[in-house]
Amino acid sequence: MGRVIGIDLGTTNSCVAVLEGGEPTVIHNQEGGRTTPSMVSWNADGDVVVGAASKRQMVTNPQRTVFGVKRLIGRKATELTDLASRLPYKIVPAKNGDAWVDIAGTPRSPQEISAHVLAKMKRVAEDYLGDTVTEAVVTVPAYFDDVQRQATKDAGAIAGLTVRAILNEPTAAALAYGIQHAANQRLAVFDLGGGTFDISILAIENGVFEVLSTHGDTALGGDDFDRVVIDVLADQFTRDNNYDLRSDSVALQRLKEAAERAKIELSSAMTTDVNLPFIAAGPNGPLHLIRELERGQLERACKSLLDRLEAPCHKALADAHCTAADIDQVLLVGGMTRMPAVQERAERIFGKPGSKGVNPDEIVAMGAAVHSGIMGGELQEVVLLDVTPHNMGIRMAGDKMSVVINSNTSIPTRAKRVYGTTEDNQSFVAIEVFQGEHELATKNRRLGRFVLGDIKLAPRGQTKVEVSFTMDADGILEVTATEVGSNKAASVTIEASSGLTQDEIKALGSRLNR
Amino acid sequence: MQQRLARGPYDALGLPGNATASEVRSAFLELTKIYHPARFARLAQDIQRLSNEVFLSLRGAHDAITKAIGGTPRTTRSTQMPPMGPAGTGPMRAPTSPLPVVTLPPSAPPAPGTDRPTVRMPSSRVAVPGSASQSQSQPLVAKPASKSEPNVAGGARPPTPQPTAPSSGRIPTPAVGVRITGAIPTTRAGSPPVGAGDARAASPTAAAPAASTGGAPFNERAELMNAMEMIRQEQWPQAVAQLQQLASRVPASKAYRAMLCYARGREAQVAGRIADAIAELERALQIDPAMPLAKATLAQLQQRRR
Fold first, then answer.
1. What value, to the nearest 5°, has the Cα angle with vertex A421 and ends A420 and A425?
2. Does pTM surpass 0.90?
3. Is residue A263 annotated as part of the catalytic site, yes or no?
């Protein structure tokens, strides 16, 4: 059987690893990097450029260079108006309302754009292994919902990869850490990446990795810290020159690069220079942005972002029925955890410093490779029990969300509830399935609907219907409704749709591989 | 695993009736390492579904015993597992149903604003199978519910039920955000899994009500678990025999026939009959073109031949 590769498809950077002799190994890309920028550009002649080459032309080709597409995948354009206003490329709504990217007049789905990154990682692995690769484990933020997960799977299909498992990023990190530190223990994985924040609490017990709880914030990551730096620099520049760099897409792109660099430098240095000559043309000639930035300034400006790290951690601890003192080890994952203020915040929450000796950029891909070994049978002594991150339920009268499977339930799982009819002589019930934490069903993600018909006519409340949810280890949900006391039943398997049809996925796939 | 699962939670975990909480826990963890669905993620979908059921049963056993001997089930914090095994036939230690059943008092109609779950009946939409036994082929309507729909009481039988579609596995056009891959009634006892291609249609829940009525002499799931174990241990002649039995008991299952050919192929390969092995593996792939195990072995064999 061919090799299954592990891919960390990151907001900013991606990384690929394979299991070799029971050990996860990160693979260098053709440019020699251990991670690859998750960026895709279309040249004027229509050629697609991926990775470092795309990043290089971001300044000269900002409208046709897409970064951070993970923030768009599986989302509606209307959910992203705030983000869209800050991006140099253009977000357009697809026919079904999904957020797509307009590249020189051609709307392209985030799945297609992500597929270019995945295809690049596939080629990197193939060059290294000297063999065709068709299967992968791909990681996503733990807090991704089913639509975002399905969209990621579809991106894999476009890239010619069968995604054998969608693994949660913090869980992957714990797997990679845990196979080297096998003792029974409790871990907190604090994962602040380019676009998302996840916190997971796990127990390792005799080789079984059991996720106890997971929480997060899908809109908190390195990009937000970059934006704070951009705002600090641009606000001062506006005061000095009466010129807003954020309204000039080429200037904004240079500013964004400089901001990211400054942020990274301030993780090790106390001050850094921002040096952007000729950044814009003012009424009296060229304008330059040249100034010094201090770590303290950055930390003060980022305070509200740092504050947002706290609540998910406390919720995760509460859901795992433990306190910070029960945590043996805090794993820091994601490039943003290099920022001293982030490390301090994690230490304050958990009362102990984060684990050293873990490469926050590579550990997630390594964990994905470990999981491929669990599936392939190379690692017999390790297995993972994950949880579903969101409530699953059905809609009741008054749009109330009736939860059948609670968030942080270990999967696979099965749960049942019995419901009564609401009207006299009601002859059928419509089961509408939703995912999310809101009390109103329609404020959550709608996954599907089906009908159980021809039920016994009786005064309201007397006819009862049992609704059963079965979720498998991949999070795929099957819902069955049965009339109590009879054999009448209806059932569907509900898989979220990323909005692309199988035909579209196939067509995009053959175009990409041409 | 076959008899063990059917005989109740202690047998399922391979433990004596006086096992301690920590023995229960470590037996469960060891079995988890063997039977977790991730171990079967690269096999046919039928097998994945079965591994899911087996694992749910193991966890149900773990939780039932842990609860009965006074511990808190760690694996199931907020939602309870169904009891494992045929209810009433196995020596279940936990007599209470762990299911969160919400029953409504027949005399009291649900009052608005209470916490009582009720299912709202949309009175104007029509998507009603003529009977449950027909609903297998009934396209499920997945239109977004209209919010403006009046919440009329006294819902009469809806107008004309939709004609049922021929059972061609036709799936309705996905509505926004929805992909429905299968539909099956849960009325038939022991409904056999269908081919791997539409394996989703073989509902694992289909077996649950049937099992609870008890007395089925042929435990398909257990038989398949045995076969899978033999494949895992590469005991090809035993696997062939087991799969032959399965395939003849459930002739509709393409997956079993494909697995049988695969096992025969591997048996031939081990015996050095390479041409036979290739022929059997090719047959497996004709039956189930998506069988990754067969594909990979076949590719290896053909490469070696050249």
1. 140
2. no
3. no
